[in-house]
Every structure is written in structure tokens, then in C-alpha cells.
Design goal:
Blueprint: E1 7-10, E2 13-16, H1 27-31, E3 34-36, E4 39-44, E5 47-54, H2 56-69, H3 76-90, E6 96-104, E7 118-126, E8 136-144, H4 161-173, E9 178-182, E10 188-191, E11 195-200, E12 203-207, H5 217-228, E13 232-236, H6 240-245, E14 248-253, E15 257-264, E16 267-268, H7 274-287, E17 298-302
Parallel strand pairs: 8-9, 8-15, 12-13
Antiparallel strand pairs: 1-2, 1-7, 3-6, 4-5, 4-6, 5-17, 6-7, 9-10, 11-12, 11-14, 14-15, 15-16
């Protein structure tokens, strides 16, 4: 059961979550014409009156860019203001996941993006571990990751997640935790909602942005942290067979954070993950506001 926070941002104000409702004729519901973000926020370990948001500016910027694929302009300032007001109104006490959402709110039936009304809302849910921190099992999906020429994959467009949903359910119903998708060229792209990394010979390798991946914010953060630690990072095409012989394989994402893959199909992977563990420890330190070097990655919102 999801535990939704009591207030949502809807129609330009904070209102009770239960009152934030849309029509069954809403355009975005029928055609997937929406863009969303996902952000994590946690109580500050050293200040009970503060909440910490990770890489807020990056998340907001990506949402603004995603909205432009829908021919919608929304300002970063407006999103941040709504976000701050929503968190202050809810006064959360546990870690939360924040879902800001730009959508076509028109009630028309034509699939279009011109001459159409759009709107914006935010809601929050309490969220601990999205995937098991001990590791997940994966299968290669029978579904193929979409191509950028058919969908704007650099945006988090809601309609694009039908493939993720199909892949995730296929994996779950066949006894696995998560799905890994290949792109139309047969190269590894990403998981159902996470980016993928492998370690080979002490080098950190991840599918490059031309492999039809979402340009993940946690992915970019992990790359930057690895480089700061002197780890060589290579962004390139990754073959399926590399997953089975890699020294380490792990997933990254806002919800997943850094999650190891312990098994892919019938192959059990190594349980020793020194590179991933260093990155995970460093990322945790940052998100908890304990890193002076990366304090600029954290937004502190005072609840009072």
C-alpha cells in the first residue's frame, strides 16, 4: 500500500490529496501526453526541521525540457516554488518520493499537442527501498527499448513507459525482480526504469546516451563520483554477453538509488562489489548532507 502525503499541488495551490482529481476524459490519460519527474527527499539526520532534496536543479531542468517535447513551457522557478510549498505543507517525517507531473489537461479527443490546455501537479508518497539493497535478479526482456526517432527518449514522457510496464511485468511473472532491455541494434539499453553499469578490469562502463537510454540524473552523478575517485569511466555500447562475465553489474535511478544485480537469467554474478560499494557509500553520504565537497547537490528545505 502506498502512503500518500496528505497534500498535493493542484490547480496552482496545495489542496488535500483526496480532492486532487481529474476528469476521465483528460487528454493525457488517453494518449500518454504527459511528462513527469521523480525526486527523493529525506529528513535531515542532523536537523529535524529540515528536509533534504537530491540534485533538485537537475531534476527540475529535466522536467522543463521534457515538457517542451509536449510544446509546453513551464518555468523552473514555478516548479521549485510549488515543490517547496508542497513539502512545507505536508511536513513529512519519513523519506519520500516526489512526483511532479506536466500533462495535457484538455478534454478533447484528438491526439495532438497544439491548441491544447496543459496543467501541472505534484504529489508525494513515503518510500523506502524501491528495490532490495541486497540485490535483484534480472532477465532479458522480450520487449525492445524504443528508439529516439520514434519517441523523445531524452524526456520522461509518460506514454513511453508502456514498454517499461510490459517488461517489468514479464520479468515478475517469470520469477525475476527486474527486466533488462536491448535496443533495436541488439545492445543493452537499460532496465525498466533504471540505468545500468558494469565493472570490468576496474573500469566502470555504462551504455552511452546514443543507446536509447534515459539520461538519468543518478547515472550522471555516479559517473562524476567515479571520475573524482580516479575510476576510469567508459560510455559505450554494451553487449548482452558482457553482463554475464562482468566483475560487477548494478542499476542506478532515483527510486532504485544504487542496486546490485545478483543474477541474470541462469547466471549468478559475483557478490564482491568493491567499486559499487564505494560509489554507494559516497552517494549515501551526499544524500544525507554529510559531504562538504558535494553540499551543492543538496537542497535544504526548512519545514518551519
Amino acid at each position: 500500500m502506498h502512503k500518500f502525503l496528505p497534500y498535493a499541488w493542484f490547480n496552482g495551490q496545495c489542496i488535500p490529496f483526496a480532492e486532487a482529481k481529474i476528469s476521465i476524459a483528460t487528454h493525457a490519460l488517453h494518449y500518454g501526453t504527459a511528462a513527469f519527474g521523480g525526486m527523493r527527499a529525506i529528513p535531515c539526520p542532523s536537523n529535524e526541521n529540515q528536509f533534504l532534496l537530491f540534485r533538485t536543479e537537475k531534476h527540475i531542468k529535466r522536467l522543463v525540457q521534457s515538457a517542451r517535447f509536449l510544446l509546453t513551457e513551464i518555468s523552473e522557478e514555478y516548479i521549485y516554488s510549488a515543490l517547496e510549498k508542497t513539502i512545507k505543507k505536508n511536513k513529512p517525517t519519513n523519506p519520500i518520493y516526489i512526483r511532479p507531473f506536466v500533462y495535457t489537461s484538455d478534454l478533447g479527443i484528438a491526439p495532438r499537442l497544439h491548441n491544447i490546455e496543459t496543467d501541472f501537479f505534484i504529489y508525494c508518497i513515503e518510500l523506502g527501498d524501491y528495490l532490495s539493497p541486497d540485490g535483484v535478479t534480472c532477465r532479458m526482456s522480450s520487449w525492445t527499448r524504443q528508439e529516439d526517432r520514434s519517441l523523445p527518449l531524452r524526456g520522461k514522457i509518460s506514454g513511453a513507459y508502456i514498454t517499461s510496464s510490459l517488461a517489468k511485468t514479464e520479468a515478475s511473472l517469470s520469477g525475476f525482480d527486474e527486466a533488462l532491455l536491448l535496443n533495436s541494434n541488439g545492445k543493452v539499453s537499460e532496465a525498466s526504469g533504471m540505468n545500468l553499469f558494469i565493472v570490468r578490469n576496474n573500469e566502470l562502463i555504462t551504455p552511452s546516451v546514443d543507446q536509447d537510454i534515459l539520461e538519468g540524473i543518478t547515472r550522471a552523478s555516479v559517473i562524476e563520483l567515479a571520475q573524482s575517485m580516479g575510476i576510469k569511466v567508459i560510455e559505450r555500447a554494451v553487449d548482452k554477453t558482457e553482463l554475464f562475465i562482468a566483475d560487477e553489474v548494478f542499476l542506478t535511478g532515483t527510486a532504485a538509488k544504487i542496486t546490485p544485480i545478483k543474477k541474470i537469467e541462469s547466471t549468478t554474478l559475483a557478490s564482491d562489489r568493491p567499486v559499487m560499494n564505494k560509489l554507494k557509500s559516497m552517494l549515501t553520504e551526499i544524500t544525507e548532507g554529510r559531504s562538504k565537497d558535494y553540499d551543492n547537490w543538496i537542497t535544504r528545505i526548512n519545514l518551519n
